[in-house]
Amino acid sequence: MSAGKIAIRELVKVFRSPAGGEVRAIDGLSFGVPEGAFVSVLGPSGCGKSTLLNIMAGLDRPTSGEIQIDGRAITDQDRPRIGFVFQQPRLLPWRTIEGNLWLPLERTGNRAAGRAVIERYVELVGLRGFERYYPGQISGGMQQRVAIARALIMEPEILLMDEPFSNLDEMTARKMRAELIRIWQKTGKTIIFVTHDISEAIFLSTRVILTTRRPARIYRDLSIDLPVPRRYDDDRLFEIEKEVMRDFLQYMEDTEGAPPPEMGRPGGAGGEVLLGGY
User: Fold this and answer.
1) Residue 171: φ, ψ to 5°
2) Per-residue confidence at 257, pLDDT binned at 50, 70, 90?
């Protein structure tokens, strides 16, 4: 992997609260991501992880600091192709699976080329034979596969994923994590994956960045130097999970008495981290 695909430098995001005060969601966040890496950002609910992805995708703006892709600052005029997979699949229920996948391609005007691209990604996410189905006719896990294919179909340089499996039952989520690793290996995309599930982050990632309570700062930066694909019964994964869990629980205990930050956005400050298990 070559170095320096993404550089986040002294990123700060401040929101105005309903009472007129300021809520600092991110405070001086800095880290780099090599091309082709799978990096999970792990932290308590409400600590600014989704805000980070929104800024990277251009859905929000930082208060200060910058994000560079391939050495160039992201601007509205110079924005790389970025795919985004949300918690909910956000499929149009009146369109078939194929129809939903056409959405990012409709401006290209080349129907033959677009159909070939759709066929390739339907095959990649394992949905061949379901192209004519509607979202309400397939499972939640299959809907999320469609969302992943839709994010990949425009060949993004970076794939952002905001807790995409959090609304699935655990058995389906396990299958989807394995599928995501397979897709990542096949495509070589640079992935930034947000979660508050320790076991999920460790199972998926080449690197885990733990953040503090809001405002988000880096608490720990951990490389997961284990081969992929991985197995849930791998004792090495379990040992890393236990270490991270102990460390994070100690941090939560040490900061328990800190005054809670002011409520600034729906969802509150939060403090939940799923401790999961294999």
Assistant:
1) -65, -40
2) low
CA 263 to chain centroid: 24
In sequence order, the 6+-apart residues with CB closer than 8 A to the CB of 91 are 100, 135, 143, 146, 147
Beta bridge partners of 38: 191
5-9, 267-271, 272-276: least confidently modelled range: 267-271
| Alpha-carbon dihedral sign for residues 268, 159, 79, 64 | positive
5 residue type, one letter: K
In angstroms, the CA 225 to CA 255 distance is 30
Whether pTM exceeds 0.85: yes
Beta bridge partners of 15: 23
**CA gap 38, 43 in Å, rounded:** 16
Q: What is the CA radius of gyration of the chain?
A: 19
| Helix-helix angle 170-187:140-152, to 10 degrees | 20
Q: Which amino acid is at 267?
A: G
Cis preceding linkage at 229, omega within 30: yes
Beta-bridge partners for 272: none
